Amino acid sequence: MAKRGSIIQDDTDMSEINISPMIDMVFILLIFFIVTTVFVQEPGVEVSRAHANSSHQLERNSILIAVTSSGTVHYGGSEVGVNGIRSIIQRFMQDNTEMPVIIQADASSPAQTVIRLLEQAKIGGAKYIHISTAKRRQG
Fold first, then answer.
1. CB 88 within 8 A of CB 80
2. What is 104-120 written as a DSSP string?
3. Domains and CATH numbers, the chain
4. What is the model's pTM?
């Protein structure tokens, strides 16, 4: 009879679920998703891009730089100027040399500013530089 009592005693202990490993697993998954997530730094200003027939979608993991109609250069929500772009690009190119630079130039932005920005991006080490355009509407 003593044996039967101990078996019943063990069954009641097994009815409790230990969720500690599940909590550990959730934290590990959370850390994994945070580390592997790509954070895109938006330029912080809205520009009216020029239209082109040859436009296509580029990958999200890129450096976005905006040039306004008045010729100011923005990155990450703040004005950095043409000369500030080189250090930003150099910082990104240390980790990923294949990361493209996308210039979102306003349709009425000064061409000289965009050309100087292209030069600074190349000096900073960018291999792939693209000009962002809007898809031309048919009709």
1. yes
2. EEBTTS-HHHHHHHHHH
3. 2-36 (no CATH), 51-135 (3.30.420.270)
4. 0.59
